[in-house]
Amino acid sequence: MPKITVTVNGTSHTSEVEGRLLLVHYLRDTLHLTGTHVGCDTSSCGACTIHLDGKAVKSCSMLAAQADGSTITTIEGLATGNELHPLQEGFKEEHGLQCGFCTPGMIMCAADLLSHNPNPSEQEIREGLEGNICRCTGYHNIVRAIQYAANKSLVVSE
Amino acid sequence: MSNKFIGKSVKRVEDKRFITGRGRYTDDIVLPGMTYAYILRSPYAHARIKSIDTSAAEAMEGVVTIMTGEEVGHYGVPCGWQVNFKNGDTMKEPPHPLLVKDKVRHVGDAVAMVVAESRELAQDAAEAIMIDYEVLPAVIDASKAVEEGAPLVHDDVPNNICFDWEIGNPKEEVDAALASASHITTLEFVNQRLAPNAMEPRSYIGQYDNVYDKYTLYTSTQNPHLIRLLMCAFVLGLPEHKVRVVGPDVGGGFGSKIYHYTEEALVTLASKKIGRPVKWTETRSEAFLTDAHGRDHVTKAEMGFDADGKIVGLRIKTFANLGAYLSTFSTAVPTYLHGTLLQGLYTTPKIHLDMTCVFTNTTAVDAYRGAGRPEATYLLERLLDLSALEMGVDPTELRLKNFIPAFDGVTQPGYQTNVALQYDSGNYHGVLQRGLEMLGYEDFRKAQAEAAKTNKLLGVGFSTYIEACGIAPSAVVGSLGARAGLYEVGQVRVQPTGKVSVFTGAHSHGQGHETTFAQVVADRLGIPMEDVDIIHGDSDTVAFGMGTYGSRSLAVGGSAIVKSLDKIIEKGAKIAAHKLECSVDDIEFIDGKFNVKGTDKSLGFGDIALTAYVPHVYPANLEPGLDFSSFYDPTNFTYPFGCHIAVVEVDKETGTTKIKRFIAVDDVGNVINPMIVDGQIHGGLAQGIGQALFEGVEYDENGQIINASYMDYTMPRADDFPMFELDRQVTPCPHNPLGVKGAGEAGCIGSTPAVTNAVIDALWSAGHKVKDIRMPLTSERVWRAMQS
Predict the structure, then answer these.
(1) B487-632: which CATH architecture?
(2) Which end of chain B is more exposed for a tag (fewer CB within 10 A), N or C?
(3) Looking at beta carbons, which residues of chain B come within 8 Å of A84?
(4) Beta-carbon separation of B11 and A92 below 8 A
(5) Chain B CB contacts of A129 below 8 Å
(6) CA distance A35 to chain B (A)
(7) Whole-model pTM?
(8) How far is A5 from chain B (nearest CA, A)?
(9) What are phi and psi of B412, to 5 degrees?
(10) What residue spans define the domains of chain B?
(11) Which SS3 state, helix, strand or coil, does residue B411 take?
């Protein structure tokens, strides 16, 4: 079995993994980081979105073995101690979640969006969420949550 | 009583765990020694099983056990609602076995379950099971399934008819009314089959403890106690006190997680058999094949008008597809949740629905967000807008002319419909007029006329809907065939320090009960929200409950909690009177304090709680403790209503529809948390608009779903919508203590016909006098409609 070393949320892990093991199952079943969810089997819903070497990636679309040597952030690693990430705060403040199942993927995707485009228009936010499905919110408050985070980050950086 | 929280957009207390990745859904739970199940399913819609050979699979690495219909096929899941034929005969109720041993009846029908050391090993072994099928012709369409010579889904159900049923006025009276009409609008249409698509796939863990002879089932359900009752009493014959059912965090339901599914019983049986926990989590493809679908009606409807535009009669013939087996509430949906809503908001004097409910070789159909009420609303609201176009009158004026006049249900009686229900309170003109103000109707019509000269047509569609929610009075639903009561249970346990634990039988899977219910409790007791904990979802901690569906949690579950709060306050007043040495009649409870009226003597809620548990100075004949449980059984349904308006742009060259604006003015009675109610409306709108424009389960003639994945089934995405424009009217429910009506389904019920109507309106604006386009209104279908 391939042996991999990955840094996840700041901690290094070395594991032997089955060749066919998907990264999402490695995170969930081996590392017990169950905040990353599986909502489909076609890489269509985005519930499994994580950051791999700083980019948003659907962790169901790659093998754990392919992640060898990479640095991963999951939803569990997004806050700084007890201080929520602006997006986490935005989702709470703007009621951007209901059942919470798509939320980790939405937040990780939005974080990537804001890293490239710190002040996106409503349309850019909506297009940026194209790869993520939410069945509860109608996306209305997710858009507002991301606007909240963008505004807050802009204020902080000024 | 205080007024700090009710009516305020309090941020949700449950959010923290979800935004930090610490939600706990069933598939997140890992138990020591856990095994994993994979279910082998039929690739055919209809086939006889000639043989099953599991020997090669049993010898494979990591396999713990394999179960087939031979072992467990005598167990089956029940239907919870009995409907009778028109002639009084009981509906046909063929068994739905946990695993099939003789004949598979839809693609995805379960044939064998492999339990192994890992999910992958279980799947590997399943592939080695040899099954010899004799493939039979399949029947998919409900209206064709009743024809002579159609394949029989169940050999002993003639013409595949589960039952026929009617409601309303005698058919002859409706026929006579229509014969006298000066205009009749006829609409033949399909309300297509939908996949609910909660984002969390179904997941179950069975765990048997042989020391205590106790079973635990973790399940992604909307109603843990109902699952326990059904599985124990009607499937496996287990004693309820030896079964614990836990519904932890659940990733959306929309109806699809109400039902008792075969896999819940299978993991329970398997865990007992092997003495280890067994987890099964479906894939998304399996969800398309096995989670109960929604809608699937084929309808012909006729609405007659007199020369003044007053509706004189409504005649409907519908075939409802129930799928291959009866899901838990499947039979109630096309009947008592649909036929009873055909009055709509209108004074229609004569109504008749003739309904035929049919088995086909398809996935079971049951309640999906709205459940029967969206079908009724689609039928009525499509007819209203189409009639206006056909008669050359304004669709809003046609509605205003036919609306039931406003009534509050207190000083004025409820409105008795021709289809069995009595509406509680309503002001239907108000929501339409507010919607028209928001729209700027006159300006819109001018813009539409301009757009008609271009390639980007504009259309507006209206939908003024009503729904029956807060289900339901047990005696009423019992008389209609429900095999369960539909009350709710709320227990309030005041701890000795005055902190409060509330146990509710409702189940939150996105609705925000931990916040809304805490707002109610905190205000009623005059204590901070942080002092209130809402506990749900575990049959070992919550006494009983019927769960969450039909927009009932607050109206029924919240009312049960209020009943217990009233008992707490009443007992607290007795304790306070004793300690303050006055008559209990002199005690008033305000802002968390028991005061002696007209004096400055007072005791805080915490003092009374402590006294109840340390009863040294205490009334004689009063039990210690401050803990009450109540069952609340409503006296009527609640009837939310509203006005939804869609503005669409249709590209004349491509047929592509874009939602330009969506306006929703909903009246859901009193509102505890406006932020949460708006969120419920938003989500419902997305699903309702999704039905109109994007979604639909498509079967081929062999019974294969050709879009059973997210690659193929179009789910609405963020860039399909504008920001929604919401407003609210408040007509309190007169018969529950909170005056609430329920908001979970409104968005999904009202929105669908508004969108279709808007597209049809756009086409008429350019001279394409199209009566109907089959949903979903894809670019191709709209384009073809413009070419015809």
Answers:
(1) 2-Layer Sandwich (3.30)
(2) C
(3) 19-20
(4) yes
(5) 717-719
(6) 4
(7) 0.97
(8) 23
(9) -115, 145
(10) 31-136+200-251+257-290, 294-471+636-787, 487-632
(11) coil
